[in-house]
Amino acid sequence: MKLLEKVAIITGSGRGMGKEYALAFAKEGAKIVVNDTDDISISSTIEKIKEIGGEAIGVVCDVSKSDSVKDMVSKASERFGRIDILVNNAGINPFIVPAEKINEEGWDRVMDVNLKGVFLCCKEVGKIMIKQKSGTIVNISSQVALFGEYGFLPYAVSKAGVITITRNLAYEWARYNIRVNSIAPGFIAGGMNEPILKKEKIVEGLATRVPMKRFASPKEIANVVLFLVSDDSSYINGETIVIDGGMTGFYPVSFLDLIKK
Ligand SMILES: NC(=O)c1ccc[n+]([C@@H]2O[C@H](COP(=O)([O-])OP(=O)(O)OC[C@H]3O[C@@H](n4cnc5c(N)ncnc54)[C@H](O)[C@@H]3O)[C@@H](O)[C@H]2O)c1
Fold first, then answer.
1. Which of 112, 161, 181, 195 could pair covalently with 64 via S-S, beta carbons 3.0-4.6 A apart?
2. Rounded to whole angstroms, what are the CA distances from 144 to 85, 106, 204?
3. C-alpha 16 to ligand 1 mean position (Å)
4. What pLDDT is recorded for position 254?
5. Marked catalytic residue, from 150, 155, 176, 235
6. Under a CB-based contact definition with an 8 Å cutoff, are residues 225 and 87 in contact?
7. What is the rounded distance in angstroms from the CA atom of residue 211 to the CA atom of residue 252?
8. What pLDDT does residue 200 have?
9. Which of ligand 1's atoms lies nearest the C-alpha of 143?
10. CA-CA distance, 105 to 116, in Å (whole number)?
11. Mutation to probe ligand 1, out of 45, 70, 88, 92 (largest number of atoms < 8 A from CB)
12. Helices H / strands E in the chain, number of each
């Protein structure tokens, strides 16, 4: 068991990828703090953790609100006495629209959850990890932070900021034996993509952008996050691992294919 007796807070783990990470960590012996904005989704993750013999508590918290984050972190440390792992997974992409149609309120909400939320959780958990002189943090960015896409501006900006938070905190907190890394997934067959997964044409169209011609399974992403929070990655710090089947940085149509035409 790679995470025996470790305590992990996973934000937004009531469903989707956060739930996947929670179950993967629990199978490796971690005690989980399940967070989301509602009790119902939290309970469903806790039930699954208990089914596999794991231990978990649930804390309702909106990661964009500092008082709410402070309350979550104090409940976690009261219950378990320490926090070894933080996965900043909670994230939203509520609208996909051209830049000229984005309203100020929508922009602010995406920044509040995806960017400020990561900072607030790092800050509060970081205080405990600094005292412990140990800890590992994984922030969930996105491939879209590294590539131009149509209609994703606030989401992409927030996820680029997540990479910058990662790099800076990795530098600041290495002196306290805290590692901070992030992942930048491409298309995952789960989580916020759930609504499009049955739409074959969209899925096939998106998959043509990927050299591997398919979406990632949730497990393929969870395996990397597990690696980053475990001692298997003990010398990796400040890194962003792109998990996108090779999509970033390749031309959709190859030179050879074009000159053959
Ligand atoms: N699914 C993908 O293809 C994909 C690709 C790249 C990155 N990501 C990132 O992975 C993370 C997880 O996404 P997912 O696909 O599982 O989406 P999801 O919508 O299924 O899950 C996100 C979870 O975060 C919770 N959440 C939202 N706002 C919150 C808040 N203010 N406080 C606490 N919890 C909150 C939601 O209730 C939900 O349970 C996100 O950060 C997302 O941007 C997903």
1. 112
2. 25, 18, 19
3. 7
4. 83
5. 155
6. yes
7. 9
8. 96
9. 6
10. 15
11. 92
12. 9, 7
If you ran DSSP here, which 8-state letter would residue 37 be given? S
As a whole number of angstroms, the distance between CA 161 and CA 182 comes to 11
Report DSSP state, residue 143: G
Binding pocket residue ranges, ligand 1, CB within 6 Å? 11-12, 14-18, 35-37, 41, 62-64, 89-92, 113, 117, 140, 142, 185, 187-188, 191-193
Cα separation, 104 vs 161, in Å, equals 18
Which residue minimizes the CA distance to atom 42 of ligand 1?
Answer: 91
pLDDT of residue 261: 77
pLDDT reported for residue 112: 98
Pocket test for ligand 1, best of 10, 13, 17 (most atoms within 8 A of CB): 17
Nearest to 235 by CA among 179, 163, 182: 179
Model pLDDT, residue 251? 81
Q: Locate tokens 């508590």: which residue?
A: 57
Report pLDDT for 253.
81
Ligand 1 mean position to 91 CA, how many Å?
4
Q: Write out the two tokens for 197.
A: 């997964």
Please give the average pLDDT of every successive group of 10 residues along the chain, which has 261 residues.
98 98 98 98 98 98 98 98 98 93 96 98 98 98 94 97 98 98 98 96 95 97 98 98 93 86 77
To the query of whether residue 155 is one of the catalytic residues in this protein, the response is yes
Could you tell me the two tokens for 205? 């169209």
Domains, the chain, in order of start with CATH, read 7-260 (3.40.50.720)
Dig out the tokens for 94 from the structure. Answer: 């509520």
